[in-house]
Design goal:
- The complex is a heterotrimer of chains A (255), B (442) and C (414).
- Chain A has 255 residues and is an alpha/beta fold.
- Chain A is built from 10 helices and 10 strands.
- Chain A has a domain of 171 residues: Rossmann fold.
- In chain A, the strands form 2 sheets. In chain A, strands 6-7-8-3-9-10 form a 6-stranded mixed β-sheet, sandwiched between helices.
- In chain A, a hairpin with a 2-residue loop joins strand 4 and strand 5.
- The model of chain A has no long low-confidence stretch (mean pLDDT 90).
- In chain C, strands 1-2 form a two-stranded antiparallel sheet.
- The longest helix of chain C is centred in the N-terminal third of the chain and has 41 residues.
- Classes of the chains: A alpha/beta (255), B mainly alpha (442), C mainly alpha (414).
- The structure holds adenosine-5'-diphosphate and magnesium ion.
Chain lengths: 255, 442, 414
């Protein structure tokens, strides 16, 4: 089946922040058209590893990444690769909704504008609408596209941020605890959305809620103190973990 | 439609992407250029100060043997001090001419200059210098004594390269023949440059004698003002900060005071000068040009900044210290004075030194309260005259020199800046060291 | 009796009170409400305070009262002055002794000395804090009175709407603020044109591009520029930068264009003032840019924006109110700057648009009108107070506006 082609493959990745060894020799293969969840106790390196996948760690001065990460077979850490171009292919949604202090429209149009994805105003309008629709927020904001994005509720803001990421036409969507700042209703909406996004993107989601991982993901990776303890089908991990640490975490003894 | 991303392969940069990368590079260069502009301005400023000002610390001296003729200085031969005092500097001036005539003969110098023109290369302060010396020791009369006179500013400028034969073509104060004469004296070692302690310790001189002007008296004036500022601004500033930070209730009055302080900190310094003139001098009739008035004005000017930095220091003391003190039964007042204040002291001190440094360099308000008087008194008197008699201050003295017509004073002005900056750098270094030493993170 | 001896005597009485107060509670066997030192301090303060108050009021009121009756206090040998001094000393000493006595009466183990002393200290602290307000009041009052005096002697129409500034001694001076304001604003604009781009770009570079190593070197170096006294910049303008400009644009200059006759000009003062303001703008902007949350930068980078795109499209718009505030503060600095314009701008009041010509400003005229030998009641001197008041109002307005902007901006991200 198509959904099992490998989109991103990370091999022997190590990450250091000055003296902290945050990721220790992690290798993972992320399939396309499915949701992969990273779980693990707080501080185990989930965010760090996620940020390696689109080279967001380049913006942190002390962060040193080694190892290979391939996107469709191309090494994203090759010196010739422009991280800007890479991040256009791999969108990211953050823990806290972070709309720019601009209108909703401008927020969503930001990516297409800088990447030159739209020809003309009507094209851009269509693109914004489509992104907002895909992020399941169009109906709520279509009458106030010129209102500031910061004026929306938390859940709405997060969906605008997802729309913003989608509008850049990425192939992979990285989400770092996208629901942790949201209430249960907004969380349910976003989870539903993630399941739909799977049709078009490879989605990687960091979550500290095991239930969320079980609900939305097909693959799960369990991190513990910077190492990848176990990686496999979500069902297997939750019903039949091989590593005692995974079992401990899932049953609530670690973390 | 959301098209698939145009960047097919990570390694194939599109034209769009190349443009963006170029724009990025341009912007980066722009930022770098801005930093470069700022830093090169600093470099230019510093180089200018050092190259133009270092000359002030060297001065040309003329060493002459002068016969102190009894016939000129003490006709009666009584050596009575009151009588000696009746001989003014005019009585001494001819001795220098004589001394030059003798040197010319003795050392075989060839010159067409009259003895008057020869003597003119010596500073106008020379006669007074001899007179002071003789009044100090009347026994010298009748002997020949060696004197080290200041050369006048043109000859001094000639030795320092500021004055050349070309630049003095139409100059009434100095002639080419005098420069030729000076050349021979230099050859013979009679004129030479040496370290000029008088510049650091001495008083300003009239605009006829740039070579004799020093900044010492102004340093004392500045120092006196800083004492006033320290004595007034520190206690008042700390008291206000303690009140606002620890005791002030949240009400309109407090808000009003805070807004007031924030705005006062940004009021132009010259406005404080006007205030000083109107209140301290015109209304309270404090003496003009006195360091005490300057100190008061600078205190009012420094207070707001001092309060802001002191409050920051108090704020940095964690609330846990206060709760701990209150917990063992101390009153709020005791907790503040016994626990919070000592912990904030290094921060307060740092802020105070920086505030003083700022006050030390301030000029505009001093001009308005007249602290640019030409002060003739020399070193020991200035110190004892204290706060109420007229004085100058370092920046005001520099301003005074910058305004004078003779370019020889410019060298003094730059030299004065070097001294001022040495003071400021020292104060800032002390502040930085203090901060490093006592920096605490809770 | 000279005043300082009187003061010493009051202090001696107060110290005596300190000792007596301490002794009294120490001798009392009962348990004390406060520490002995509190009782002692109470007596000390109670002795000094009324006496000091009497002394101050007497010293201020006596000359005034005597003046009302046509008498003056010319010097200390005058019989009236001696009588005044003697009477003053006696009254002050009596006040001190009486208050010492009453304070001692109050002292007893149950007496809450600490609370009283602390109230006293608190009042003293409040008075110190209120001094800032007093300073403002002093500034306003002193300038308003003299300005009113000036407007009595000189037509306000000329001051506000005249077109010429030419003080003379014939009593028909033209004293209009407009040409001075023109000079002030022109030079300030030149200064901001230098300082804002350089300062803002430096701040952006330091906070967004520079490595922490570069930042740790370049930032303090730039801040040195802010610590240099303005007299240094003034001298630099007058003696180095002005002549340099004239060597380029003067009649015998490098370009032989003859656009500049004097070393002092708008450009001389404006550009040097701009250099002085660079660190001011950059450190304010640095604070403001750093206050923009990291999450906004992350959001923009995560969408594949370059740094410059992030700065231009996200950071600067987000920081705009704060930056506007910073620029207003810099403008207020430029308008009130004195030494650079006194030395570098010239003394000619006129409306010229040529940046290479000399112009004069409000602050330079304040200095020149108040440092001459002019009569203090002539409009030529008093105009300085009117100029000062205008300057104060102008800068205060800018500051209030700017601080409001900056505070609003800060609250947005707190
Ligand atoms: N910017 C940073 N600088 C230094 N250390 C960091 C930084 N970010 C994360 N770390 C460290 O890396 C480790 C992993 O952090 P993170 O990836 O945020 O964990 P998680 O997202 O799983 O909670 C932690 O020990 C954390 O302290
Ligand atoms: Mg995390």
């Amino acid at each position: 089946m198509n959904s099992q082609t490998i989109k991103i493959s990370a091999r022997h990745v190590d990450v250091h922040y000055d003296k902290t060894h945050a990721i220790k020799d992690v290798s993972v293969e992320i399939p396309s058209n499915s949701v992969t969840a990273f779980i693990g106790p707080s501080g185990c390196g989930k965010s760090t590893f996620l940020r390696c996948l689109n080279r967001m760690n380049d913006t942190i001065e002390s962060c040193q990444v080694s190892g290979d990460i391939l996107l469709d077979g191309e090494n994203i850490y090759d010196p010739k690769v422009d991280p800007v171009q890479l991040r256009a292919k791999i969108g990211m949604v953050f823990q806290k909704p972070n709309p720019f202090p601009k209108s909703i429209y401008d927020n969503v149009a930001y990516g297409p504008r800088i990447h030159g994805l739209a020809q003309g105003k009507s094209d851009l309008d269509a693109l914004v609408e489509q992104a907002l629709r895909r992020a399941a927020i169009w109906e709520e904001v279509k009458d106030r596209l010129s209102a500031p994005g910061t004026g929306l509720s938390g859940g709405q803001q997060q969906r605008v941020c997802i729309a913003r990421a989608i509008a850049t036409a990425p192939e992979v969507l990285l989400m770092d605890e996208p629901c942790s700042a949201l209430d249960p209703i907004a969380t349910a909406q976003i989870e539903e959305l993630i399941d739909e996004l799977r049709q078009n993107y490879a989605v990687v989601i960091v979550t500290h809620s095991m239930h969320q991982a079980a609900r939305v993901s097909q693959k799960t990776a369990f991190f513990h103190m910077g190492t990848l303890v176990e990686f496999g089908d979500t069902k297997t991990i939750f019903t039949n973990p091989t590593d005692p640490r995974t079992e401990g975490y899932i049953t609530g003894r670690i973390g | 439609m959301i098209e698939p991303n145009p960047y097919k392969s990570l390694f194939a940069a599109s034209a769009q992407n190349k443009r963006r990368a170029a724009a990025e590079k341009r912007f980066h260069r722009l930022g770098l250029a801005a930093i470069f502009v700022g830093l090169s301005m600093l470099a230019i400023l510093m180089t200018t100060i050092v190259t133009k000002g270092s000359g002030a610390f060297q001065q040309s001296f003329i060493t002459l043997d002068v016969a102190l003729l009894e016939a000129k200085l003490d006709k009666k031969g009584t050596r009575d001090l009151d009588n000696l005092k009746k001989v003014t500097t005019f009585g001494y001036a001819p001795l220098i001419k004589v001394a030059f005539e003798q040197v010319v003969v003795a050392r075989g110098i060839e010159t067409d200059l009259t003895s008057k023109d020869m003597a003119a290369i010596v500073s106008k302060s020379a006669a007074a210098q001899m007179r002071d010396c003789v009044l100090n020791d009347p026994g010298l009369i009748g002997t020949t004594a060696e004197f080290k006179f200041l050369a006048n500013s043109w000859i001094d400028g000639y030795l320092k390269g500021r004055v050349t034969r070309e630049t003095i073509a139409n100059n009434k104060n100095v002639s080419i023949a005098q420069l030729d004469f000076a050349d021979q004296l230099i050859e013979l070692g009679i004129i030479g440059k040496s370290f000029n302690i008088q510049f650091i310790l001495g008083a300003d001189a009239s605009d006829q004698r740039p070579e004799d002007a020093g900044i010492g008296v102004a340093i004392i004036g500045s120092f006196a003002m800083m004492c006033v500022v320290l004595l007034l601004a520190l206690p008042i500033g700390v008291a206000s900060s303690i009140y606002l930070e620890e005791f002030a209730p949240k009400n309109r009055l407090t808000d009003f005071i805070e807004v007031n302080i924030a705005n006062l900190a940004a009021v132009p310094s010259i406005v404080f000068g006007i205030l000083g003139l109107a209140i301290f001098i015109n209304t309270m009739h404090l003496p003009q040009s006195a360091p005490v008035v300057g100190g008061l004005v600078l205190t009012l000017m420094t207070l707001p900044t001092l309060i802001i930095s002191t409050r920051a220091a108090l704020k940095a003391v964690p609330p846990s210290i206060r709760s701990a003190a209150l917990g063992v039964g101390a009153s709020k007042m005791q907790s503040t004075f016994h626990h919070v204040l000592p912990l904030a002291a290094p921060g307060i001190l740092t802020g105070t030194i920086l505030g003083l440094a700022q006050a030390l360099g301030e000029t505009a308000p001093l001009l308005l309260i007249g602290m640019i008087g030409y002060v003739a008194t020399n070193m020991p008197e200035t110190v004892s005259q204290g706060l109420l008699s007229p004085n100058s201050a370092m920046p005001a003295q520099i301003y005074e020199w910058a305004k004078r017509a003779d370019p020889a004073f410019y060298e003094r002005a730059w030299g004065g800046i070097i001294i001022l900056l040495i003071f400021l750098v020292t104060m800032n270094l002390i502040a930085v060291t203090l901060r490093r030493r006592f920096e605490q993170r809770w | 009796m000279p005043t300082y001896i009187l003061i010493l005597m009051v202090i001696a009485l107060a110290l005596l009170g300190f000792w007596l107060g301490k002794r009294k509670v120490n001798l009392a066997a009962a348990s004390l409400h406060s520490l002995p030192v509190h009782y002692a301090t109470y007596v000390l303060l109670m002795t000094i305070f009324p006496a000091a108050l009497t002394l101050v009021i007497w010293s201020l009121a006596a000359p005034w009262l005597l003046h009302e009756q046509g008498l003056t206090l010319p010097n200390t040998n005058d019989p009236v002055a001696q009588a005044d001094a003697a009477l003053k000393s006696i009254v002050v000493i009596i006040v001190a002794v009486v208050s010492l006595f009453f304070a001692m009466q109050k002292v007893s183990p149950k007496f809450r000395a600490r609370n009283v002393v602390e109230k006293f200290i608190l009042a003293a602290l409040l008075i110190c804090a209120a001094l800032a307000v007093l300073t403002t009041v002093g500034i306003v009052v002193s300038m308003v009175f003299e300005t009113a005096h000036f407007l009595n002697l000189h037509s306000w129409k000329d001051f506000f709407f005249g077109l010429a500034w030419s003080p003379n001694f014939h009593g028909d001076s033209a004293l209009s603020i407009l040409p001075l304001l023109w000079g002030t604003l022109y030079i300030s604009c030149v200064a901001l044109l230098v300082a804002v781009p350089v300062g803002l770009l430096s701040a952006i570079y330091l906070s967004e591009y520079a490595s922490s190593f570069i930042r740790s070197i370049a930032k303090p170096l730039l801040e040195i520029l802010a610590g240099i006294p303005t007299i240094v910049y003034g001298l630099f303008a007058l003696l180095t930068f002005g002549p340099f400009l004239r060597d380029l644009f003067g009649p015998e200059g490098f370009f032989s264009v003859g656009w500049m006759s004097d070393a002092r000009s708008v450009a001389t003062a404006g550009i040097v003032m701009g250099i002085m303001l660079i660190p001011f703008v950059s450190s304010l902007s640095d604070d403001i840019i750093n206050a923009v949350p990291q999450s906004l930068r992350d959001g923009s980078f995560g969408l594949g924006a370059t740094r410059s795109e992030t700065i231009k499209h996200v950071l600067l718009p987000a920081a705009l109110p704060g930056i506007v505030g910073a620029i207003l503060l810099a403008a207020s600095r430029a308008i009130g700057e004195t030494m650079i314009v006194v030395l570098g701008a010239g003394a000619i009041a006129r409306f010229t648009g040529n940046p290479l010509e000399a112009l004069t400003t409000v602050t330079t005229r304040i200095v020149s009108q108040l440092t001459g030998d002019g009569d203090f009641n002539s409009p030529e001197t008093l105009v300085a107070f009117a100029l000062g008041l205008t300057l104060f109002v102008l800068t205060l307005g800018l500051n209030i506006f700017a601080l409001y902007y900056v505070r609003k901006y800060r609250e947005q991200y707190e």
